[in-house]
Fold this sequence. Notes:
Number of domains: 2
Number of helices: 7
Order of helices and strands: HHHHHHH
Strand content: under 5%
Helix content: over 70%
Number of strands: 0
Shape: elongated
Radius of gyration: 20 Å
Structural class: mainly alpha
Largest sheet: none
Amino acid sequence: MLRPGRDKGLATPMPLGLAGLATSSFLLGFALFSQAPAAMGPYITQALMFGGLVEILAGMWAFAYGDPLAATSFTFLGGFFGWWALSHVTVLGVHAATAMAVNSMALTFIVCGVVTLYLWIASFYEFAAFNLVLLFLWICFGLTGIGMFAGSGALLVLAGISALISGLIGGYASFAEVYNATSLQDVVPVGESKVARERIEQDENLRIRRLHAMEGEPHAANMRA
């Protein structure tokens, strides 16, 4: 698939998107372990800024770059983390954590987990690290929702562990994308499949031919003049 943003000199949004996703997922895991409202403040503000705002910006960047999966994933998950942060501020305050509010949040986790599940299925044609980030993230969302419905602390702990794993893999993937981009070679592996590698090479060849065609148009116009 052609990514026209590369023709315009746009860098890949993957490192930023994965960095925001990694830190937010990792800290969400710790937040699921901690039930003390006083300890939630830093997690909430981090989720609002990095998991929400930065992630949505990375998603918009991915749209311009021409990567539909990254654009959809980063924007959707940015909206999710922004919702999670704002819900704790406006709905699930210290005196407002009613059973109805908790059940509503649980249902939202499950529904967003289903969306993340099909994003994970679509990511089988991307590199393995990104696929694993989405895998453990949708497991986290599902377990969190079910744990809230059932009032099960054990399920919330498992959800937190899944989020921690997702965050660690996302951090590694972000580092790999940045390092490989700056070194101009694939030094740090991210688990690209043969299909993904062939698609990248095909896209690059098409991009080069496209750039040459664009450069040849002004020359042809000058010749006609």
